[in-house]
Specification:
Order of helices and strands: HHH
Number of strands: 0
Helix content: over 70%
Radius of gyration: 17 Å
Distance between the termini: 53 Å
Largest sheet: none
Length: 90
Amino acid sequence: MKKIFLKLKNWLQKLSFRTGVIVLIICILCYIISFAQMLLPISVKAKGVLWVIFFGLAKTFQYTGITIVGVEGIKRLKTLIKKKKAGKEE
């Protein structure tokens, strides 16, 4: 089982930075849906099931996106955010 996870991790890390960012955006959407569905006029059981499904998807996309982006990608994102903040301050 460990070999399968290592192969999957290596395959995910070969994907592009852009793909990782898209997966992280999908993660954010799943988080929003998981909590926004609480406002729907449906039964409590249905709300619970929907929350578990969408929250689980959000976590899956989160960890997958972080694996794709990697450490260098995180540094790249932080640099982009700092540049945007510096541009606004000028």
